[in-house]
Design a protein that fits this description.
Layout: E1 16-27, E2 31-40, E3 53-58, H1 59-65, H2 69-80
Antiparallel strand pairs: 1-2, 2-3
């Protein structure tokens, strides 16, 4: 039997173990846009719209990137509040 109830919001907790980045737009010499998503401890992509971010790198941040991928990764991680786990 299904009985209607007054709606309630539940918050689900995730343990994020990895972050994935996808370039969604690149305007050479101008900007790059990344979609940022998360993977949980079970290796599952978290599909919640609340946990998918768009990061636009432009202006001085884009100019500082040059060919240093470490710079762009550190910039994105600082914007989303995560620290990359370095291999031991």
């Amino acid at each position: 039997m299904i009985t209607p109830v007054v709606p309630q919001t539940f918050t689900r907790s995730y343990t994020i173990t990895s972050v994935y980045l996808k370039v969604t737009e690149l305007i050479p010499n101008n900007s790059v846009t990344f979609a940022v998503g998360y993977i949980d401890q079970n290796g599952e992509y978290i599909s919640s719209p609340d946990l998918i971010y768009t990061i636009v790198v432009e202006g001085e941040e884009y100019a500082n990137w040059t060919n240093n991928d470490g710079y762009i990764l550190n910039l994105i991680f600082s914007k989303i509040g995560f620290t990359p786990q370095l291999p031991s």
